[in-house]
Amino acid sequence: MLIKVKAFPGANKKKIEKIDQDSFEVYVREKPIQGRASQAIITALAEYFHCPENEIKLVKGFQERNKIFLIKKYDN
Question: What secondary structure letter does DSSP report for 62?
Fold first, then answer.
Protein backbone atom coordinates (compact mmCIF):
# COMPACT_ATOMS: atom_id res chain seq x y z
CA MET A 1 0.00 0.00 0.00
CA LEU A 2 1.34 3.42 -0.93
CA ILE A 3 0.55 6.35 1.33
CA LYS A 4 1.18 10.08 0.97
CA VAL A 5 2.69 11.86 3.95
CA LYS A 6 3.10 15.56 4.58
CA ALA A 7 5.96 15.83 7.05
CA PHE A 8 6.20 18.38 9.85
CA PRO A 9 9.70 17.99 11.34
CA GLY A 10 10.68 19.93 14.44
CA ALA A 11 7.14 19.80 15.87
CA ASN A 12 6.45 20.10 19.59
CA LYS A 13 5.09 16.57 19.81
CA LYS A 14 4.77 13.40 17.74
CA LYS A 15 1.37 13.07 16.10
CA ILE A 16 -0.24 11.42 13.07
CA GLU A 17 -3.41 12.81 11.50
CA LYS A 18 -5.26 10.82 8.86
CA ILE A 19 -6.47 13.16 6.12
CA ASP A 20 -8.12 10.57 3.88
CA GLN A 21 -7.70 6.88 3.03
CA ASP A 22 -4.09 7.18 1.85
CA SER A 23 -2.96 10.63 3.04
CA PHE A 24 -1.50 11.52 6.41
CA GLU A 25 0.11 14.45 8.18
CA VAL A 26 2.95 13.31 10.44
CA TYR A 27 4.46 15.56 13.10
CA VAL A 28 7.82 14.54 14.59
CA ARG A 29 10.23 16.27 16.95
CA GLU A 30 13.37 15.46 14.99
CA LYS A 31 14.89 18.07 12.70
CA PRO A 32 15.39 17.28 9.00
CA ILE A 33 19.13 16.67 9.39
CA GLN A 34 20.82 13.59 7.89
CA GLY A 35 17.50 11.76 7.48
CA ARG A 36 16.57 11.87 11.16
CA ALA A 37 13.08 13.25 10.51
CA SER A 38 12.37 10.64 7.82
CA GLN A 39 13.49 7.86 10.16
CA ALA A 40 11.29 9.29 12.92
CA ILE A 41 8.34 9.28 10.49
CA ILE A 42 9.02 5.63 9.66
CA THR A 43 9.04 4.82 13.39
CA ALA A 44 5.77 6.71 13.93
CA LEU A 45 4.11 4.99 10.95
CA ALA A 46 5.25 1.59 12.23
CA GLU A 47 3.54 2.30 15.55
CA TYR A 48 0.41 3.58 13.79
CA PHE A 49 0.10 0.58 11.45
CA HIS A 50 1.31 -1.95 14.08
CA CYS A 51 4.07 -3.34 11.88
CA PRO A 52 7.87 -3.53 12.04
CA GLU A 53 9.86 -0.57 10.74
CA ASN A 54 11.48 -2.74 8.06
CA GLU A 55 8.06 -3.12 6.39
CA ILE A 56 7.90 0.64 5.72
CA LYS A 57 10.00 2.12 2.93
CA LEU A 58 10.37 5.73 1.81
CA VAL A 59 10.05 5.67 -1.99
CA LYS A 60 9.78 9.36 -2.90
CA GLY A 61 10.47 12.73 -1.26
CA PHE A 62 13.72 11.98 0.55
CA GLN A 63 14.47 15.68 1.05
CA GLU A 64 10.99 17.11 0.68
CA ARG A 65 8.02 17.76 2.94
CA ASN A 66 5.69 15.66 0.77
CA LYS A 67 6.72 12.01 0.84
CA ILE A 68 5.43 8.68 -0.40
CA PHE A 69 5.88 5.54 1.68
CA LEU A 70 5.32 1.89 0.83
CA ILE A 71 3.77 -0.17 3.62
CA LYS A 72 4.62 -3.78 2.73
CA LYS A 73 2.21 -5.26 5.27
CA TYR A 74 -0.72 -4.03 3.19
CA ASP A 75 0.82 -4.72 -0.23
CA ASN A 76 -1.14 -7.35 -2.17
Answer: T
DSSP state of 45: H
Is 74 a residue whose pLDDT tops 90? no
What top-level class would CATH report for the domain 2-74? alpha beta
Distance CA 1, CA 11 (A): 26
Q: In the chain, count H helices and then E strands.
A: 1, 5
Beta strands in 1-76 (DSSP E): 2-8, 15-20, 23-27, 56-60, 66-71
* Cβ atoms < 10 Å from Cβ of 12: 8
Indicate whether 16 pLDDT > 60: yes
Mean pLDDT, range 18-47, rounded to an integer: 96
| Segment 24-34, tens digit of pLDDT | 999 999 999 99
Q: Which residues contact 20 (CB under 8 A, 6 or more apart)?
A: none
